[in-house]
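Long-time lurker. I teach an intro course on protein structure, and each term I like to show students one example going from raw sequence to a predicted 3D structure in token notation. This year I'd like something fresh instead of my usual example. Would anyone be willing to generate the tokens for the chain below so I can use it in lecture? Attribution to the forum is fine with me.
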Amino acid sequence: MLRASFWLTAVVFLPLGLLLYFLPATLAGAVGVSPLWLARVCGGILAVWGVFLIASASTSGQPHATAVGGLVGANLLSAATLIPAVIRQGESMPPGLRAILLGGAGVLTLLAVTALIAFPSRRSRL
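-- Reply from a regular --
Happy to contribute to a lecture. Here you go:
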């Protein structure tokens, strides 16, 4: 279950990072991304994070506590960033885009909780 959480999170972050990194200027103007360099930096960070998650899920043993903490932290921070932004935009955002963003935040939160539950505690090893 823990590896599935890593893989599914990578499936979210890697394509999104690549999309933001290679975002055409015409699409950036239509979406409302103001400084294009900021979208490229964020896309690069998300793409690297997706590759890290794939590498963490592919390790032969159980993922380390640091990797699981990073997964949980990144997912919860991403959800905590998306939800207020979508709520603040309110009715000015298209309903389809609002549903996709809220659904993505929900999926990231669910994957973070799954990773926390699936990570074996130290007490179980005694």
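Some talking points for your students: Helices lie at 2-21, 25-31, 36-57, 65-89, 95-118. The CA atoms of residues 14 and 50 lie 4 Å apart.
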